[in-house]
Each structure stands twice: as structure tokens, then as C-alpha cells.
């Protein structure tokens, strides 16, 4: 059965408990459900294969079970593994201490970004399909970088570290 990852925007241990989130997806009929880290990453199996349909089903399950709404971006584990194998950062020299991040877009509308783009300690490097690959060196200005991503791509996005993507693929 195909395996998927739901990346939820805005989830933290303060606003969503992972056992409750897991239960919501199981109640909706998803199988082999696992949460990864406490920031809204859920891995699951589903016969349904259209990611947009899975996004709506996950969001409906969370609203029904928790009374909360979180934007959800779903990708197949196979797709994420290919993305990891591609290593979109390999063509760039990264500063020491750089954090690699992936911004998952909910839709594939055209975006006019002049890349690579650098601001303070952050660089937007490459847009491949629906994903934006960036790096930043953690600093007090890091939240400004997240605001720049939102300004460039809109609010229908969620961002994860490269390490988190590796963890969900292995889950």
C-alpha cells in the first residue's frame, strides 16, 4: 500500500498532541499511522493516491477529531526519497552552520522568484516543482527568513528541515 507524509502547518506540542493527531487519522481510516517529532509530521498508508484528496481527508479528520484546522501538504514517501536522492543543495557552497530547509507548497501555481536569492543569513536556492529549497544560518533574524518565504510563496506552505524530511522517510 502506498505510504504518505502529511506535513501540517503551525503544529506544536502546545496546540496539538501527537497521540490525538494519530488517533484522528486512524479514525479516518488511514493505516500504519506514525507521528514524527512533535511538529505535525504524520506518516501513514492509504489506498487513495491523489495527494490533494488526501490533504482534504487529513484536514477533515483533524477538524472532526480535534476541532482544529491546520493546512496540510501531503507527499508520497517515494517522492520524498527521490527528492533526498536528488540533493538539491549539492550545487551550492553552504556556509558553516547552515540549516537546510524545504518549503512544501500546497499548490503548484506559478511563482516568479529570482533564485538564488540571499537576505541576511538566509538563501533561497532552488524551486523544484512545488518545493523551495533554502538554507539559513540560525540567528535572531531567522523568523524574518520565514516571513520572507511566506511573502514570496503565500501562506499555503509549510517548512521542514532537511533532517526532518529524512526522518519521516525512514519512519
TrEMBL record:
InterPro entries: DUF1697. SUPFAM superfamilies: SP0830-like. It holds the Pfam family DUF1697. This is DUF1697 domain-containing protein. It comes from Peredibacter starrii.
